[in-house]
Design goal:
The chain contains 15 helices and 9 strands.
Length: 417
């Protein structure tokens, strides 16, 4: 809209738009800049001699798997099915048609600009670096990250609806029926409500949130039909008696959204995969300080009310990078100085043998560490003969550095004949 504004308005609208974006979308970038020194910590950012510190993360792009038949069969197609429902292909057809007709048959410059923005978002999704895999393997996280293309699909559907008005009233009705059919097929599909593509989300097992979603969808469809056949279709001004109905619909949607959000917050991570017993334990823990090593999937550890302090324990360097703590003494000092009450150690991942990391031995050797739970990690979508394992310790009191020396001396003694 800034680009389409009259010349005298462009600067003012650009300032308003950039201010709104900075306020609503910059929190995490500023947080990263302060904490790490780089708003995009996983990317090399440099300008002349200025080079910001970065933490390399293995990333990949969807475009890398477009011609990989095995990836399509095992991950891409199932990911689309789980994320968008049984008629995911219909959503892609609608969005693609909307892209084309929006550009070619858009009734005005605004509609054509929106279509171009939708196309740009879709292309960016294909080429943007994402965490889709472990160490260059198959795209096991595609089903989770496909949400990044949702805005492009929504805009594509809007562009198609706008472009359909140029073909006459029958086209609008036909498209509305198509949208309604897709909505019904999606709302009543069990995989959508199970949350099958998100291994950290709790499956929705009871009927309350499901029927809330269905009722909202029906209300939207009824409103759309009323707009097409009622006074809205024959007047440029909304009749006064319909404004109250519109306000009521907005209020009902806000109430339903609040109810859904409350349900999610009360039930999230209740049966998350990966390390379900440890995640279930963390849900009811409040105000705990938890040190983690070996896994970066930390969200469920913050607890139901997000009151836990969770920190990946590593050695921080002056250039804002980090590395593994190098020895037993340094490890125990870090736990003591951080006043951690719990330590979660996992073997590095599903592709490696299941023996624990050195931090596990350093922790387990100390009498201040009490093993609470241990379990194998069920890594979704990864087929491997070995699995990762997780160990959760409670730390009672201070850990003793001299014990490290005794363990090291014992390990250097010759084995008895």
């Amino acid at each position: 809209l800034t680009a389409l504004a009259p010349r005298g308005e462009r600067m003012r609208r650009a300032i308003v738009w950039l201010t709104a974006v900075a306020i609503t979308g910059s929190y995490w970038y500023f947080r990263n800049l302060i904490a790490v020194g780089n708003p995009l910590p996983s990317q090399r950012v440099s300008l002349g001699p200025l080079r910001l510190p970065f933490v390399p993360i293995q990333t990949s792009a969807v475009i890398h798997y477009v011609f990989d038949g095995s990836a399509w069969r095992q991950y891409l197609l199932p990911g689309l099915r789980d994320s968008f429902g049984p008629v995911w292909w219909g959503l892609l057809v609608i969005a693609g048609t909307g892209f084309i007709l929006g550009v070619l048959r858009g009734p005005d410059r605004v509609a054509r600009m929106v279509s171009l923005v939708a196309v740009a978002i879709f292309i960016a999704f294909l080429f943007s670096p994402q965490v889709l895999t472990f160490a260059g393997g198959p795209p096991i996280f595609f089903g989770i990250n496909v949400r990044y293309v949702a805005s492009a699909l929504i805009l594509g559907g809007i562009c198609l609806a706008i472009a359909s008005t140029t073909f006459g009233r029958r086209s609008v009705f036909a498209l509305s029926g198509t949208y309604l059919s897709i909505l019904v097929a999606t709302q009543f599909d069990r995989s959508i409500w199970r949350g099958g593509a998100a291994p950290l989300a709790r499956p929705i097992e009871d009927s309350v949130p499901r029927w809330w979603g269905v009722m909202i969808g029906i209300a939207v469809c009824v409103t759309a039909v009323a707009v097409l056949i009622g006074p809205f279709a024959h007047s440029d001004h909304t009749p006064r008696r319909y404004r109250g109905l519109l306000i009521l619909g907005v209020v009902a949607t806000l109430i339903a959204g609040y109810a859904g959000d409350t349900y999610y917050m009360d039930h999230r991570y209740a049966d998350a995969s990966l390390i379900p017993r440890i995640y279930l334990w963390a849900r009811d823990v409040r105000g705990a300080r938890i040190a983690v090593v070996g896994t970066n999937i930390q969200y469920p550890l913050f607890g139901k009310d997000s009151s836990n302090y969770v920190q990946y324990l590593a050695a921080r360097h002056a250039d804002k990078t980090s590395s593994r703590i190098s020895g037993c003494v340094a490890w125990k000092r870090a736990i003591n100085s951080g006043r951690y009450g719990y330590v979660l150690a996992t073997s590095p991942g599903p592709i490696v043998p299941p023996q624990g990391p050195p931090e596990l031995a350093w922790t387990r050797s100390d009498p201040a560490a009490q093993l609470l739970l241990s379990e194998p990690a069920s890594w979704v979508g990864v087929q491997s003969q070995s699995v990762a394992t997780a160990w959760l310790f409670r730390i009672v009191g201070s850990m003793k550095a001299p014990i490290c020396m005794k363990a090291a001396k014992a390990s250097r003694r010759p084995a008895p004949p």
